[in-house]
Write a structure and sequence with these properties.
This protein is α+β, with helices and mostly antiparallel strands. 28% of the residues lie in helices and 46% in strands. The chain has two helices and seven strands, in the order βαββββββα. It has a seven-stranded antiparallel beta sheet with strand order 1-7-6-5-4-3-2.
Amino acid sequence: MSVIHHEMEIDAAPEAVFELMARVEAFAAYSEAIESITCVGPERYRWCVRVAGVPLTFDVEVLVAVPPRLLGWRALAGLSCEGCYRLTPSARGTHLELAVRCGDENPLTDGLLGLAAHPLLDALGAEVVRNAWPRLHGA
């Protein structure tokens, strides 16, 4: 199973960042890669995304939410993944850490997944922060 770590600094307070992240369905407005997010049950969401032109649909369940510090989730169908966002105060506002475990026990596919995921997470993270900036700052 591949473990992907991603970190970034966000110029907003942890409370504002967490509040934005907790509104899962709104994420579709922050990235062109996310076609839609639909609530399908309590704390369950169906994500329809497009990665490198390939459509992917998966269901996600929010497992734990501890405002404004922690948000954990797992995929229920369509993807073998689980992840956790950790938010800590920083000089700039918020230090965001994402750890995602995906895939199976195949070292080849795990390695390829890790190589592909890092640049995608960097680009997606920057796009989401850029598009969510007005909401983070009350505009």
